[in-house]
Amino acid sequence: MLFAQFRSRTDYISSPEALNEALGDSFVILCGSAISGVQQPHVPMVTQVENAVLEIIASQLKLGTRTEQLVAEYAIALTTGQHKRLLQRTKFEAFLWRLQRAIGKDQVDDLLYRIYTCTGDEYGPNHAAIAYLLKQRKCLFCLTTNFDNAIELSYIGSGLLVHDQNYEPDQSLTKADSPLLLKLHGDAISKTCVATSPELSDAKVTGNYSYLEEFLKGQKVLVVGYSGVGDVDIAPHLSNLDAQLFWCNHSLDAFPNIHPKQVNVLCNLAARSGDLSELGKSQNLLLELAQVHGWQDTWEGSGHEWKGEVQDWVRQIDNRDLTKFIISVLSWETSWTHVHIAFFRQMEEEDTETTQFDVALSFAQVAAYRSAKKAFTRLLERPNLNAQLERDARELLGFIQWREGNFREGLETLDPLLPHPHNLDPDEVPKFAGQARIYLEIVGEMMLYETQLERRRRIYADTRADEAVQILKLAHTKAEDNYLARVALFDMEQATGMVIALDDVQELFNECYAMEEWASTALTSQLLLRISFWDGLQAIYRVTPRLFQRRSLKLILKGFAMVIFCALGQKFPLILKLLNGRILMGFFTAYLELAYTRKRRQWERDWAKSLLRVEGYTT
């Protein structure tokens, strides 16, 4: 078969002449963020954006209250301090999702507009080379996941058609057609960016990019500056293409294995034409390819001054919303940080229902369940409590009762919160998805400890599990914690004896893994163990090192317990309760309560001395 010599992992293209010959008379370009971010002048890569946003937020919060000053210290800890690894392990889409939940979608769209909108000559040689290849009609069309408009700016003349993800071409293009730039993840200028984890997940489930399989059929696709990792909406369709992919990367160790007809191309986008890269491994074959067709690599361009735009943007956001965002990055991911911040807020502010809720929530996160129950009970006794706050408090109280092993009590607490699905307005459904998911997780654990199918089905029938299932299905991908919701639905099917397609669960595992949703990944691996032991064991093997990096010891322990449980034929639930810590939960909670007492004394001393000391991961 043509170019079969390049298919081996040890064979690759490393010269512009070989690349030009392989691509032939025409080809397509699929490009990602590295074309914009690794060469000056550049548009910032995600790490730069995250660090800049956090640093500028910290600068503003340092001028605020004592609590805001403490939150500023935690923001700095995410960039250069104790929690730096947490930020490194947070996907950009998850970062933006937390930001959007704290301050709103319009504000996030405005931030992306400010960061990724270029003007004048604010583009680099990589953009200019792609624009030239489009102009010469060597490149039939360009697909990009980038939000910026640098390619459009670098296109000399007229005739370039630019469309965002809402455009779906009805046929493949030829040289006779106008050049097309299709922005698969939207456009910063038009504020149509597909930028958050739920948006990517929704695009995958609804198959928004399935048309690519027909659109790219028979094409030679030069993939440049695109990792293929984490784009759960696009990457699966690339794997299914009836096309040949020429995948560019700067190192032989970094090539993904996406496609059976994938040809590896050694290309360092940070280099200029004719120069070796800093690593001495490769040239910039994108620029070299354009030069083969007459382009000259003389462009310098002007720097894109985006940090000033971020500063202006932060000044417009209320400190309370910025605080909420920083806490959301740390919450449920670290040990005592939220409790620490909530303690300072309680010391500084009046004993309001909001501060009470925040304190109770922070206790729940560190599994100090006795203090959490006490705080939530006290909050629910307040007269004229805000309706939404009351719902949230009851939901978390039900969660705590479940974690303590009081399953029926938890279900009784959540029961009044669940509406009947047929009475729900479709737009209102996502508001109840979180409560429905926790309800199903409780029912799921109750059924897990029953070895007889008939007893599990009786538990299902005696609860409102079926209504909770309907709510999550109606909520679809818009459910709060969508991946956890999908795991809960699979759990119900498995526990009640329904046949589940192994491929569907493996696909969910791979999606959770790609999106770095580690709690969901861990739970999906445990579900796989119950369906297919060896497939589940492989999943456990994949996810455990990532959980260890995040110090998610509870999830590691639960995974280990499920391995033993399933290895013994799923017949001894007492062993599962013992190994996963369920039996010892009371002792663990008591230890955390003592730990909180010690922490509180230290924080009281810090408050008296006006110290702002950051808590780490340890419990």
Question: What do you see in this structure?
Answer:
The protein is mostly helical and 619 residues long. Helix content is 55%, strand content 5%. The chain has 30 helices and 7 strands. Strands 3-4-2-1-5-6-7 form a 7-stranded parallel β-sheet, with helices on one face. The radius of gyration is 27 Å and the shape is globular. The N terminus is likely disordered.
Q: How are the strands of the biggest sheet laid out side by side?
A: 3-4-2-1-5-6-7
- Rg over alpha carbons: 27 Å
Category from helices, strands and their pairing: mainly alpha
β-strand amount: 5-15%
Low-confidence runs:
1-9
The overall average pLDDT, rounded, is 89
Question: How many β strands by DSSP?
Answer: 7
Provide a count of the helices: 30
The end-to-end distance, rounded to whole angstroms, is 59 Å
Q: What's the shape?
A: globular
Features:
619 residues, 30 helices
Secondary-structure map:
Blueprint: H1 16-23, E1 27-31, H2 34-37, H3 46-61, H4 66-79, H5 84-88, H6 92-103, H7 105-116, H8 125-135, E2 139-144, H9 150-154, E3 161-163, E4 180-183, H10 197-205, H11 212-215, E5 220-224, H12 235-239, E6 244-249, E7 263-266, H13 285-292, H14 307-315, H15 319-330, H16 337-348, H17 353-365, H18 369-380, H19 387-403, H20 407-414, H21 433-448, H22 453-462, H23 465-475, H24 482-495, H25 502-514, H26 518-531, H27 533-549, H28 553-567, H29 573-579, H30 585-609
Parallel strand pairs: 1-2, 1-5, 2-4, 3-4, 5-6, 6-7
Helix pairs in contact: 1-13, 3-4, 3-14, 3-15, 4-15, 4-16, 6-7, 6-15, 7-14, 8-13, 16-17, 16-30, 17-18, 17-19, 18-19, 19-20, 19-21, 20-21, 21-22, 21-23, 21-24, 23-24, 24-26, 25-26, 26-27, 26-28, 27-28, 28-29
